[in-house]
Design goal:
Number of helices: 11
Order of helices and strands: HHHHHEEHEEHHHEEHEEH
CATH superfamily of one domain: Homing endonucleases
């Protein structure tokens, strides 16, 4: 059983000229289900009733933060009895991050259950619900860096309204604040720096576009031949990041 937003997304991809195979691979929905939707364009009443509870989040700052966490260290998996699990991996070293993640999930879906699963070196902040694929339509089979990651229009509006919350989620998942040092004229100088590292070109682009809109200057550094790292090192930009992001704790 799929909600109306998932159904409409699949049909919109077909309308853009995509094949059944490609839409099925991107969305994780069977070809037979998509084929049936295409032949019966009007959703059945029980699907409409189910989708009535799958509206855009009301706590948009919390959603922007959670979106950043999801794009970095999150995944969605179906439950055998229906519904879905959202899982965000948070390192044991950052108990504050674990609590912030839990609070964001509770704010976005206050009726869904949240629990912590201890894994080696990290905690998986997990929530069960039926509407996580609606809230994160980037969900699909395979690794994020091996498929396209694009925001829906309503998601982009939330990110534009709350850019710092989105960047904070990205940094808290796949980023860090470090102290670098260098030697000049025989003296050691230390300076703070932010990094965001992700294999997905699309996710790095979302990060850098949002940094630009927030007035942050950055550089892209290569790891070998791959430009995986986004670096913020200029003093004024680091000060902006410190004011809105700060180190993980």
């Amino acid at each position: 059983m799929y909600d109306l937003m998932t159904r409409e997304r699949a049909l919109s991809l077909l309308a853009d000229g995509r094949s059944l195979n490609s839409v099925s691979k991107e969305t994780g929905i069977s070809r037979s289900a998509i084929r049936a939707w295409r032949s019966r364009p009007e959703p059945r009443p029980h699907l409409l009733n189910q989708a009535a509870h799958c509206a855009a989040p009301t706590d948009t700052p919390a959603y922007a933060y959670l979106l950043g966490l999801y794009l970095g260290d999150g995944c969605i998996s179906p439950h055998p009895r229906g519904g879905y699990h959202l899982r965000i991996a948070c390192a044991d070293a950052w108990p504050g991050l674990i609590e912030q993640c839990r609070s964001a999930i509770a704010a976005v879906r206050p009726g869904d259950r949240i629990y912590l699963l201890q894994r080696q070196g990290h905690v998986s902040v997990t929530s069960y619900g039926r509407h996580w694929p609606c809230l994160f339509p980037q969900h699909g089979p395979g690794k994020k860096h091996e498929r396209r990651i694009l925001l829906e229009g309503w998601q982009q509006e939330i990110v534009d309204a709350h850019p710092w919350e989105f960047v904070r989620g990205l940094i808290h998942s796949d980023g860090c604040r470090v102290t670098n040092w260098t030697v000049r004229n025989g003296k050691r100088y230390e300076y703070p720096r932010y990094f965001f590292t992700n294999k997905s070109d699309d996710i790095r682009r979302l990060c850098t576009e949002t940094l630009t809109k927030a007035g942050v200057r950055y550089t892209v550094l290569a790891r070998g031949s791959d430009p995986f790292n986004v670096s913020v090192a200029r003093k004024a930009s680091v000060a902006l990041m410190d004011a809105h992001i700060g180190p993980k704790y």
